[in-house]
Amino acid sequence: MQSGITVSSELHDAFTRFNSDPSTFCLPVTITSESLTPLPALSFQGEPTKESFITSLPQLSTILQPKTPLYLLLRRPTAAGAATLIALTYIPSNAPVRAKTLFASTRSTLTRELGTEKFGSTVFATEEEEILGVEAWKERDGEGAGGVSREDMMGEKERELEAVRRAEAEARNGTPGRDIGIGGTFGPGSGSGMKISMPVDEGAKTALRDLQDGGLVQLTIDIPTEKITLADSQSSVEPSSVATHISSTSPRYSFYHYPGSDVVVFVYTCPTGSSIKERMLHASSRRNAIAVAEQEGLKILKKIEASGPDEITAVRLQEEVNPPQNQGSARGFARPRRPGR
After folding, report:
1. Cα separation of 251 and 233, whole Å?
2. How buried is 324 (Cβ within 10 angstroms: 0-12 exposed, 13-18 middle, 19+ buried)?
3. Over 50: is that where the pLDDT of 6 sits?
4. What pLDDT, on the 0 to 100 scale, is given for residue 295?
5. Which residue has the higher pLDDT, 45 or 7?
6. Higher pLDDT, residue 322 or 323
């Protein structure tokens, strides 16, 4: 998945200079005005040798910030006198989720447009110590953790998906009272307690406001505009056919007014085949969708999370609305059992 961000002419020029100057240790790169742009380069502390790579690491602390993602193009001299280039992506764990989305979905663009063949390896880091720490580099070299480099064990796609999973888990479990980058906090049983930080289409608000018994309203996020929009609205939907109306390829926020009750069930589906940016934006904005519905008068007491619509069965919906006596009425945000299990 690409973000639409491209390498600027300034970065192309800066990278050409960096690539031809062996005394340059690091070329930091950020995203500004929809482009990848260079920051001032850093030189080695002393002659560029294998040892000077380690002794030059501490100066990176001057450009690393605890909530700001950054790309670091590093030159690492070898014992043979040559050098390898490393493309390091730094996405702090407590950075705003939208910034995480942008940098995670652009990291492959950076190396591809500069020339993938010019980089010997790529590194993904979420903590400063993973960049500044000598032990972290020893582990990457295979000198730690049983002699196996973690990056060598994971492919590029696996690293990107790991970043997505981290963002999704953070959005799902966020610590009460902590701003995780989407605005406000969320607590069970007390409403969303947050402001809407993403634009919402009027059609989506109207559909939620008009939701009736048996109705199914689906919202999604328009990726180019990052706006919550109406994906579909159906009436008289039987529990057994809810799944047939939900997309199996793109994430959806679905609101289903269970027939014959006053219960509105919120269903968040995020198919594994959807793009990285789709998954990260929808995961981080799920509370926004709930807050929109509550502001339009809906009371969301039941919530289900699934990877696909096939998991939203009539039995599962029935269990949410009328749970077995030994499970009580409050099930929280539950993952449905997969069909056949």
Report:
1. 16
2. exposed
3. yes
4. 93
5. 7
6. 322
Distances (CA, A) of 189 to 134, 193, 255, 287, 320: 46, 10, 17, 13, 15
Residue type, 218: Q
Nearest-angstrom CA–CA distance, 113 and 336: 42
Phi and psi torsions of 29, nearest 5°: -135, 140
Distance between CA atoms of 29 and 63, rounded to whole angstroms? 11
Q: Quick check: 200 and 226 in contact, CB under 8 A?
A: no
Please name the residues in contact with 165: beta carbons below 8 A apart, sequence gap of 6 or more.
Answer: none
The number of residues in the chain equals 341
At 175 the pLDDT is 36
Query: Cα–chain-centroid distance for residue 168?
Result: 6
Q: State residue 14's pLDDT score.
A: 96
Mean pLDDT (the chain, rounded): 80
Q: Which amino acid type is present at position 42?
A: L
CB atoms within 10 A of CB 306: 24
In the chain, what are the domains? 6-169 (3.40.20.10), 184-334 (3.40.20.10)
* Cα dihedral value 66, 69, 71, 75, nearest 10: 10
The whole-angstrom distance between residue 110's C-alpha and the CA centroid of its chain comes to 18
Q: How far is CA 228 from CA 126, 201, 281, 287, in A?
A: 29, 6, 10, 12
